[in-house]
Amino acid sequence: MSLIENKVNDFVVRFANVNGTGSASANFLFTKAIFRMGIPVTPKNIFPSNIQGLPTWYEVRISEKGYLGRREGIDFVVSVNPQSMLNDVQSVKAGGYFLYDSSKKLHDQYIRQDINYIGIPLMLMCNEAYTDPRQRQLFKNIVYVGALAALFEIEFDVLEELLGEQFKGKEKLIPANVKALKLGADYIYANFKYPLDIRVERRNLIGNSIMIDGNSACGLGAVYAGATVAAWYPITPSTSVVEAYNAYAEEFRVNKITGKKNFAIIQAEDELSAIGMVIGASWNGARSFTASSGPGLSLMNELLGLAYFAEIPTVLIDVQRTGPSTGMPTRTQQSDILEAAYASHGDTKHVLLFPSNPKECFDLTVDAFDLAEYLQTPVIMLTDLDLGMNDHISEPFEWDDKREYNRGKILDAAALDNIVKFGRYLDVDNDGIAYRTYPGTHPTKGSFFTRGTSRDEYATYSEDSGAYKRNVDRLIKKWNTAKDIVPAPQVYQDKNKSEYGILFFGTSQCSAEEAIDLLNQKKIIVDAIRIKSFPFNKTVQDFIDSHEKVFVIEQNRDAQMKSLLLIELVANHQKLISVLNYDGMPITAENIFNQITNQILSLKSSPLKEEANGKKNKQNSITN
Amino acid sequence: MSYTRPKFRHPELIKNKLGYTVDYYEGALSTLCAGCGHDSISAGIIQACYELSIEPHRLAKLSGIGCSSKSPAYVLSNSHGFNSVHGRMPSVATGANLANKDLIYLGVSGDGDTASIGMGQFVHVIRRNLNMLYIVMNNGCYGLTKGQDSATADQGSKNKTGNINLFEAIDLASLSLELGATFVAQSFSGDKTQLVPLIKAGLKHPGFAFINVISPCVTFNNNVGSTKSYDFVREHIAATSTIDFVPEMTEITAKYDEGTTKKVKMHDGSFISLNKLSQDWDPLDRLSAVTAIHNARAKNEILTGLLYVNPDCNDLHQMLRTCDKPLNTLLKSDLCPGASMLNEINADLR
Ligand SMILES: Cc1ncc(C[n+]2csc(CCOP(=O)(O)OP(=O)(O)O)c2C)c(N)n1
Ligand code: SF4
Ligand SMILES: [Mg+2]
């Protein structure tokens, strides 16, 4: 009684699990198998702020067209969590499927007439096949993967190959896992019609892409960037950044003979201390970084201001989560933008980077160190939980062995010998960036007193208004220099095709690109730009100038990116229309599409048309 | 406003091993109040570095915020300095030390900077046994914000405005002993004879060296009733020992009475020589130091001198097993796994 049309490589599966029952690796096996079959796939973890016992979901979207954002509408639920079962039954699309553990009879309240039920006695099967209680629990997960393989026609060879890789060195474990897969598949073969109308078919759409989470990519980027000091304080969703850095550094940075390490990691007592350590290490000439999330960023404010004013390179990776306060610590958001841009009291602004995928997490982490050292200022990378903690299909990482680290303007002993008088804050090159020295460089030249108080060009404490103003004005000059150095936005068209533009950044990319296609299908053409950094370079201003309306897509309540654009660029606030999503779930294309079409409809019923036709400077009543 | 010191110096100043006279170790002219205890401690730092023949540029001086934290500017003008933010010097010093293990690290803080806003960082820098000398210039008040009580002000003591402090004082020396500090000393800004050898020993100690120096604030806390005033301290001071720091390879000429002299060998071959005044205390025994402080406090005395030292400790770098070269000298070739390795990583992720 399927109501769903034949859907090859285009559906969403949701696994409803219990936290801490070993479902994660089974679910990943499912995703990776589809990836190996050359089909675009994107998984999202939806998990509670809890270690064991609460519901977790793992949502997998399979998309022949390569749409890798989240999609609403679940075609298939794998239900192994009685606690959330009622909601899980409700979450299935009409005509969809509900796979459950039929060891016990399904209660009437879970019965819907418009969906299909696939009951597998997972518990009974595992109790029969295994004796160890832990195995009984773990293999339930593998059994349902086997069943899914039969239902969706996932290639068995691929699953076996993946198990072989997973248990490399522990080959003993492979047969038991394969047995569990077969148990599940055989049960389907014996009891159900297979394959389903929703199924997968091998393609060659992945190319040489890789699958990895953003946090691991950041950690790897820090190793490649030559970071030697990492200081951090645990916080979801950033913790795995430093864990990945640690793992890669243990692999590549330990002397095989002496066991000594070319890196140091400190789990600090709090985020104030973590950022303080980064500042101290960077001041002393080591590449150093920390990773945190919103609450940590809040704590770091005072020291970020110090780094800005004392001009010390500082790399901070902020993996954003849902605020304010503790908010929803295991849900995603892009809501630290204003906090990060202007962190700390007084006139401060910081360079921000917005990666959209793991490849960019890697590249922009490396860039962050170059930028921080070249500009001698904090660089805050704003990723988020969705990017950081979920696996994503990504272009492979690239490294050019010819790439040198840009350590910025540093004077060594020989250079110091060649200058008459060293001025730490002297704008020698007229770009706002002065030369610095590392402690210990020269017996009599180049030493200075670093401080967060006002000083003159020679780093001498000064409360002279003129000296103060010259200094902060030079910092703005440096800021303007940064505009041409920070990564440029991605502009989607050579020439504008529309009066409408859409602007987005970070993890909204996939859904925004899909929304553009959806709009095109409705004959609505939009131009697009993806921001990768702050300060905004001129391209962003040009994009806004050359469109009548710009939809700003972001994942927070207060339209923070729109605010930042309005503060830092010249734009009429009615020109920028917000498309917002802030419920903690990654934004979907459908959501973007709906918000934009609704806005356009109301624009059309307002005097916009005239304006779009070239008459400038007219106010209309559209706001967000 | 900037201050310069008159350049004239006596021509016959004695040179140290490096050929520097003591004025080479001076900094900018102090802007603290005349008579401030902090300035005497700065003079002690200058003297100690001169006597130890330290290359000033191989020492980094760090501080938080306060009158005390300003004082690194008044010593060693050829050293890099870092006046960070209130209470956060320990973290900045930790990062700096991790980046370059070859420099000497001198941290200067106040009692407000350490015992209140910076207590968390102070506690944790001790735990990590960071190789540094940490001096608290302890005046029992917040000098820079005009004299409020600090957490080290003694209970019942009276500040300049006549306020009586209601709260129990935090004793930084016992606290650091309790936390496992590997070098703990206490002194008085007015006792240069004791202070200079303590600073020298602290600079040479291969881990975290802590010196709590009572340093009267003449402007806000030198009144009758204050337990951090010159008069009170002079009347209530009790020393554990007289102390001498003997550099490596120096013949010991002074004669000590065997029973009362203790020589502590430092890792580089130098000695701290302690002429003990009290029989029931041993500088290598943490427990006896704790007891001695408590006993002194019960007698309303301030116990000074080297209270405890463990010269055979492992510092943070040893615990973390960092490489021998300073991390800030490593090059791309030491750090970057390179393109072919990245291709292997990519392959594993397919
Ligand atoms: C975050 C912050 N809070 C408050 C202050 C104001 N403040 C400056 S110095 C100081 C107290 C300093 O006392 P102490 O460390 O004992 O130094 P002293 O001046 O007594 O030598 C305070 C509270 C500050 N600079 N930063
Ligand atoms: S106020 Fe007190 S602590 Fe500050 S400089 Fe004056 S005497 Fe020293
Ligand atoms: Mg004080």
CATH class categorisation of chain B: Alpha Beta
| Regions with little confidence, pLDDT below 50 for 5+ residues of chain A | 608-624
Largest sheet of chain A, order of strands side by side?
11-10-12-13-15-14-21
What Rg of chain B do the Cα atoms give? Answer: 21 Å
- Going by helix content, strand content and strand pairing, the class of chain A is alpha/beta
Q: How do the helices and strands follow one another from N- to C-terminus of chain B?
A: HEHEHEHHEEEHEHEHEEEEHEHHH
- Rg of chain A, nearest Å: 27 Å
Form type of chain A:
globular
Find the CATH topology of chain B. Answer: Rossmann fold
Termini separation of chain B = 63 Å
Quaternary structure of the protein:
heterodimer
Supply the CATH superfamily name of the largest domain in chain A: Pyruvate-ferredoxin oxidoreductase, PFOR, domain III
CATH architectural arrangement of chain B: 3-Layer(aba) Sandwich
Mean pLDDT of chain B: 90
Question: How would you describe the overall organization of this protein?
Answer:
Chain A is α/β, with parallel strands linked by helices. In chain A, 38% of the residues lie in helices and 19% in strands. Chain A has 4 domains: 2-191, Pyruvate-ferredoxin Oxidoreductase, domain 3, CATH 3.40.920.10; 212-394, 3-Layer(aba) Sandwich (Rossmann fold), CATH 3.40.50; 409-487, no CATH class; 490-623, 3-Layer(aba) Sandwich (Rossmann fold), CATH 3.40.50.920. Chain A has 20 helices and 23 strands. A 7-stranded mixed β-sheet of chain A has the order 11-10-12-13-15-14-21, with helices on both faces. In chain A, strands 3-4-2-5-6-7 form a 6-stranded mixed β-sheet. Chain B has 350 residues and is α/β, with parallel strands linked by helices. Chain B has one domain (22-318): 3-Layer(aba) Sandwich (Rossmann fold). Chain B has an 8-stranded mixed β-sheet with strand order 2-1-3-4-8-7-13-9, with helices on both faces. In chain B, strands 10-12-11 form a 3-stranded antiparallel β-sheet. A two-stranded antiparallel sheet of chain B has the order 5-6. The model of chain B is unreliable at 251-256 (pLDDT under 50). Classes of the chains: A alpha/beta (624), B alpha/beta (350). Chains A and B meet through strand 9, helix 7, strand 11, helix 9 and helix 10 of A and strand 2, helix 3, helix 5, helix 11 and helix 12 of B. Strand 17 of chain A pairs parallel with strand 2 (80-83) of chain B. The complex binds thiamine diphosphate (TPP), iron/sulfur cluster and magnesium ion (MG). Thiamine diphosphate binds at residues 65-68, 86, 110-113, 137, 139, 141-145, 150 of chain B. The site of magnesium ion has 10 residues of chain B, from helix 4 and strand 5.
